[in-house]
């Protein structure tokens, strides 16, 4: 279990040391909202998204994204055995999710004709949101050190010859001294090209979907202390080996046109 925020102090120092060693192996940070050069859309702004409490790491970056998930540990975390299929209210998209998770329809908060839903664990922890009919324009306001931890194509969602990817990314804000503000991390589907070079723009996790774009993803917060979290998970590398992340990746990459 991640150490509660109330017991930081020495705990923060231990985490900082751990994050520094992780950074030397390619650990940086990811933003919830996509990459420089995101897919063009009908509007200049993107919908509001939840704020993410970040953590810290040492500078450093890699421009090489993994082409497949990291090798499994000697004792792989179990994944969900029972799955259900959920079809969106407009009947256009569907995805699979663990039977114990719930899907909350938040359509009343969406724009007219759009889909907005949230996937939660049995304990009520928010794991991902799916939205359609969203604007996908984005400006590159700054360049930020980054790293890619996971990259999986989602061919069922190909549009205009472009295959989007499920991506787990990290972004580092080195000027921030507060461990809760220095980094943000996110996973989701993106039609944008993967970053390259030593830094990247703030990333927008949106993919092309009629009539404009859509989003399906969530955030990783190692300071989260929700009941049911797996123990000893305080880095994104460790999180990727958990059953929760593996189920999230399977769920998000299962997104497809309804009936396929």
Brief synopsis:
The chain has 260 residues and is α+β, with helices and mostly antiparallel strands. It has three helices and twelve strands, in the order αβββββββββββααβ. It has one domain (29-67, 83-257).
What's the helical proportion of residues? Answer: 10-25%
Tell the overall outline.
globular
The percent range for strand residues is: 25-35%
Largest sheet, strands/sense/barrel: 9 strands, antiparallel
DSSP helical segment count: 3
Tally of DSSP β-strands:
12
Low-confidence stretches: 1-74
If you compute it from the alpha carbons, what radius of gyration comes out, rounded to the nearest whole angstrom?
Answer: 18 Å
Structure class: alpha+beta
Please write the string of helix (H) and strand (E) elements. HEEEEEEEEEEEHHE
Give the termini separation.
Answer: 38 Å
Count of all domains: 1
Mean pLDDT over the full residue set: 75
Features:
260 residues, alpha+beta, nine-stranded antiparallel β-sheet, 3 helices
What features would you describe in this structure?
With about 260 residues, the chain is an alpha+beta fold. It has one domain. About 10% of the residues lie in helices and about 25% in strands. The strands form two sheets. Strands 3, 4, 5, 6, 7, 8, 9, 10 and 11 form a nine-stranded antiparallel β-sheet that branches. A three-stranded antiparallel β-sheet has the order 1-2-12. Strand 1 and strand 2 (about 95-100) form a beta hairpin. It starts with 9 loop residues before the first helix and ends with a strand. Residues about 1-75 have low confidence and may be disordered.
């Amino acid at each position: 279990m991640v150490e509660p925020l109330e017991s930081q102090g020495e705990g923060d120092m231990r985490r900082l040391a751990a994050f520094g060693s992780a950074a030397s192996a390619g650990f940086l940070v990811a933003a919830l909202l996509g990459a420089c050069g995101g897919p063009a859309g009908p509007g200049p702004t993107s919908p509001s998204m939840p704020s993410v409490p970040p953590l810290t790491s040492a500078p450093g970056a890699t421009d090489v994204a993994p082409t497949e998930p990291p090798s499994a540990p000697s004792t792989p975390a179990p994944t969900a055995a029972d799955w259900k299929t959920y079809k969106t209210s407009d009947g256009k998209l569907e995805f699979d999710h663990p039977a114990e998770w719930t899907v909350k329809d938040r359509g009343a908060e969406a724009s007219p004709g759009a889909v907005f839903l949230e996937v939660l664990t049995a304990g009520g922890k928010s794991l991902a949101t799916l939205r359609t009919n969203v604007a996908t324009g984005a400006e590159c306001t700054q360049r930020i050190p980054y790293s890619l931890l996971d990259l999986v194509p989602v061919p069922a969602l190909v549009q205009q010859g472009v295959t989007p990817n499920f991506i787990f990314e990290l972004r580092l804000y080195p000027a921030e001294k507060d461990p809760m503000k220095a980094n943000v991390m996110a996973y989701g589907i993106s039609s944008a090209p993967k970053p390259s070079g030593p830094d990247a723009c703030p990333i927008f996790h949106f993919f092309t979907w009629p009539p404009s774009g859509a989003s399906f993803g969530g955030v990783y917060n190692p300071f989260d202390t929700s009941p049911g979290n797996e123990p000893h998970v305080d880095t994104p590398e460790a999180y990727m080996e958990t059953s929760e992340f593996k189920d999230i990746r399977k769920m998000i990459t299962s997104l497809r046109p309804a009936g396929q």
